Amino acid sequence: MPDLRDKLEGSREAILLGEFGGLLHMFGKASKDFLQANSLEGGAEDAHQEQRHFGSLWPHLGNSNLTSRFVFGSERLTTDFTDFVSKYKGDQPDSHLLRLFNACHRMTSADEKGVVRRKQSINSMWITAPFGRKVQRVQIDQIDEIRDHMASSLVKELEGYLRTELSIQEFRGRLISTLRSGMSRTLGETREPASDVTLWAQSFGVASLYKSTLAALAMGIEPCAAKNGKPDYDSLKWRLLGIGWNGAAFSERGRKPADIIERQNILGRIRLALIAQLELQRPIGNLFYADLNGVFFTFPGIDKDSSSDLIREIGPGLINIVQQESSNELWPFLMLSRPRRTLTVIAQQISARDQVAAAPCTAAALILEDDGSEVLLAPGPTLKSDVGQDICPACRVRSKRPAEETCNVCRDRRSGRQTEWLQHIDGETIWVDEIADNGNRLALLTLRLDLAPWLDGAQLTTILTQTPDDRANGSRFKSSTKRLNEVISRGQLDLADIVSVANWVVANRTKTECKAALESFMEDGAISDVPGFFRELDDSQGIVSSDALLSSFFTQNPSPGRLTRILEASEDFIKALNQSLRANVFASLPQRIGFTTSVPVDAARTGRTYRLTIAGLRGGPLVVLARSKREFLTADNLDKFGGTDSVKLALKKNGVQEWRDEESGELVNGLTATNGGSLESGYVPFTALSRSPVFTQFLLPADRLPDVLRILLDLEAEHFGSVRGKLALHVGVLVAKRKFPLYALLEAGRQIVNHPFLNRGALRTPWFKTDSGSDFYSLYPTSAPGSNGHEFSKLDRIKQGRQYWLTPGYFDFDYLGGTADSQRLRYARNVPERPSIGYGWLHPRPMPLFRLSDLLEIWRLLGPIGTTQRHEIAAALASRLEEWRGSEAAAKPVYARFARAVLQDAFTDWRWNALSGEEKALLLNCALDGLLLEAMEFFGHVVKGEATT
């Protein structure tokens, strides 16, 4: 059998050069001329394929040494690498390699449909997010300078490669760094709403599909089927290769933030090593998606037997990377999707991977979606404990001495992370004691963004690419068919008219008039410009629904570039939250103290932490880090001890009475004099323990939660306000004492946002403003999605008072006094309810995330009445709800009057009368649905560290 791995490696240079051509083919769009030509005002020519936009780079693209290295058997370019620029569109490709490239471009290009889109003004041209947010203004007057800088940098790198001073891998790395930086700042499609895909995302998407296509050629496998004796380029398909593991469990095994962060770093190193293998060493494609539980790469759409043969050859090496980097703690497996025309299968593959990852550790296998079969790649792990030793409680795979907390590997990881932290001690802290507030309480903030209905393309079928008004005003519309002219003669074109036309088109799809009707939905180009879909319409046996037709012309396309931008938009939200917390909540940084002892503390070990008892210092033992046997740095929240001055004074005046090892609690030293110390640095008192596009966890001081949640809501509105009800952000808050096991807290945090019902949509009335969004995002489904997403005929303009298929995010919280309290986090099977938490017949937790703003407002309104009155309100309402449990139908009217009387009495008449009508209504309504009691529970007990329910 041919060695597919060797063939891949033998064609490494040719494959990576093909990727280079793909990345450069729209380089000329990074120009003021292109942006001006495609602006609302116009006034320039779109000449992005002309060599003048490439400057000194153009002659290098024609270098024969470059062209001679881009060969696959007898297949080669007709001219040279300038073909990628000048011949990539329409009918221009004149070689098999370029026709394959053209097919990849058409599948990836943001404007492949050629539909009518809304042009932006040259004076206000924006890069947007797929969720509707304006991200970055395109700097029109700088774009030519940016392009020229990229070109000159590429000339230098290309010359180094052609002179063999740079390897192809080094050249590729510098190429991507240069192009990503510049092309991410401009657009390949300037018109709205396709302005969500940057020129970089579009170009990289094309190059990734082409790279996988060339990998098939390199292995001697024709990437597309034949039709009538010729390659059928519209049949080109791709797979996704997934490498999965239980990264969430791996992270949660850490006992301290330093352990967990280092485990995150290990996952990062694994990802980079896999990228090096699959993008460079044996180039089969590019990284498409990555999170805690694994990675997915584009993969050739070759037959099952060839695919499994290739994975048998390269799979053991990939598994070895994961096992070696994780010191055999991660047991990976591989997944291969069946060939498809699009990559929207990613959502389904992520779900299937997570199910496998959550199962008990087994032998490493390849799971083929083609038929569900499995191919064994490597045997499973073996667990053993040396005689007289225990299993390490952190990793659970290695042995340790009974006296040690962890094995050597886990301890070295923590030590290594501490060494790295010491080089950047003014950043996020790695010490739980520094994060804990003055009451020694921690808060774990867990965020999960449900991107599945976006990655599988379902929600993209609700985003318009052209509005009816845009279509009615299009230059080609009025010159189309008699049927369409009849429709628009009645006046403004609406969705019902469009559906009517589509139904007629489907019924007459083989007629010449039908083709003219279809073309009327397109701004430029003929039907043949759009792959696959129209060929099926021409086929007398083809069956195409009107909904499929409408989705093709009127809703967004799930191209690889757009899917990438969806992931980037999610990461941007997490970055913005991190930055906003630093700038606003933690702008005033707490300080550390460094001090020395008069004599060495002989038992002190560098990198270990100790608890010091200091006479006259209120607040309990002080945690310090040993830098040496005489040099120490505080690793505690010094505000608990009265501030830095109090700590320095106590250290200088009284010294240290007692030193105890923080891990074991053993006494290691007695009375020791110190110099009192001095301020060393400020630090950020929170840390991100987990970060990915879909799942993030922050460890924060509990008393800062209200400020953090206000910022979270503001950012959620800014980033996702245009897609409320379509994109669900789930938020969990757990508060615990500083000594609560961190691994248990992380596991509970994941549990609180992961229940399946959280992702279920339902018919609901909008809870958000419906008149402030963009026209492109104002369509909402009126029923559940089908297998191909939402049907266009079942979309409607969103309006108040009507029901739509909406999916809200949820917010949940709790105080964990012990690990057994996590049992309270269980939800009812099919409803958003926690039966263990409630007030009589009310079970308000978890609550829709949009109610969090009400929770914050209620606490503001309750502020003036004092703690005693708030306790009286809570006791009175909760006891009466419990008393009337089971008879709520009869009790509700009485309870409403009772709640009003309780509130009015607690506020007193003058305070109650000072409230506005809206404020009174909010308090009364929230008393009836349980949110008033939840506000007092959250702020009065959970944030303060006590639970009453």
Key attributes of the depicted protein:
single chain; 949 residues; alpha+beta; Alpha-Beta Plaits; seven-stranded antiparallel sheet; six-stranded mixed sheet; 32 helices; globular
Care to describe what's here?
With 949 residues, the protein is α+β, with helices and mostly antiparallel strands. The chain has six domains: 4-233, no CATH class; 237-420, Alpha-Beta Plaits, CATH 3.30.70; 424-455 and 560-588 and 684-823, Alpha-Beta Plaits; 466-554, no CATH class; 591-682; 846-949, no CATH class. It contains 32 helices and 29 strands. The strands form eight sheets. A seven-stranded antiparallel beta sheet has the order 19-18-15-16-17-14-20, with helices on one face. A six-stranded mixed beta sheet has the order 6-7-5-8-9-10, sandwiched between helices. The chain has a six-stranded mixed beta sheet with strand order 21-22-13-23-28-29, sandwiched between helices. Helix 8 (143-162) packs antiparallel against helix 9 (168-183). The N and C termini lie far apart (67 Å).
- Coarse shape: globular
How much is the radius of gyration in Å?
A: 31 Å
Low-confidence stretches: 475-481, 525-543
In the residues, how many domains can be counted? Answer: 6
Report the average pLDDT across residues.
88
- Counting DSSP E segments of at least 2 residues, the number of strands comes to 29
Distance between the termini: 67 Å
Strand order within the widest beta sheet:
19-18-15-16-17-14-20
* Total DSSP helices: 32
Kindly name the structural category: alpha+beta
What's the main sheet like?
7 strands, antiparallel
What percent strand?
5-15%
Question: What proportion of the residues is helical, as a percent range?
Answer: 40-55%
